[in-house]
């Protein structure tokens, strides 16, 4: 197996670590486009507090805006490289949520440490025009396929122009396509049971966030515009694995990275027959503490189907800070119920999962890495433009 960085390195003998899912977002109130944006951020914050327990939890203000200093303190202090994955959701946020323009500014603050991915909405052909030029101009290494305007229950990959667009992007240098990888406040109904870690019922230890009065419908006769609360939390995108398989079969030169929670594990296992399909383990790693047995079983099944060279680490930061997930993966052992069913992870497997696979897929050269950031640089806070 081809592992480009399996040798131990870094502090404490850890292997090289690449976080393949980091979001630099701005969910502050002035960027929220009405109640839907506020609800989305509130649900994300609620899930963060359920899945990232810490003596020093992120405050609401720190969670709403990812700054260069926050990236240095929470991500680059624990990993060697990271991939910034965008999500505009323009119906929910005035300037975009995890906007590519803001990602470019974050990457400029940490040269050589962060790779940029672009957005591609398969339902909006007009936005896809000039994708090759954008890839070259912005130095994009990947594209994230997701709805540009708002999260949806399903993501269609059937558009006939999509394949031609992805070929142009690959020829320009973005040969990696992320599918089912985005900030999610709620897993889709098609996701496996373990993916619902952090989705809690009433009466749980962390109360649901309360809506402000202005977000409720106004009284009859008021001259103010009526704001209506949506019926429920905004859903995450689901993916039809049949469409992913058709796309990956038609485009063998492109590496498709699918989220572990975008479809049932059994469906993802069937995709393993395609050598250019990879799985990002973010949601599964997050679920290992709360749903230990089903999540560990899913990890074992994916390892058996894909091997460690097609699975990669991600934190979904700021949903979870990567240091805790790294520790969990380095010390992971299968629960007693699964002992003997799956082989335990050895050092080579952990090295591939934590960084080797993602470095190879995204083209990171870790041989000349300068090491992890010890403390954040003291610079002024940028504002997305």
UniProtKB/TrEMBL annotation:
<dbReference type="InterPro" id="IPR032466">
    <property type="entry name" value="Metal_Hydrolase"/>
</dbReference>
<dbReference type="InterPro" id="IPR006680">
    <property type="entry name" value="Amidohydro-rel"/>
</dbReference>
<feature type="domain" description="Amidohydrolase-related">
    <location>
        <begin position="65"/>
        <end position="364"/>
    </location>
</feature>
<dbReference type="Pfam" id="PF04909">
    <property type="entry name" value="Amidohydro_2"/>
</dbReference>
<protein>
    <submittedName>
        <fullName>Amidohydrolase family protein</fullName>
    </submittedName>
</protein>
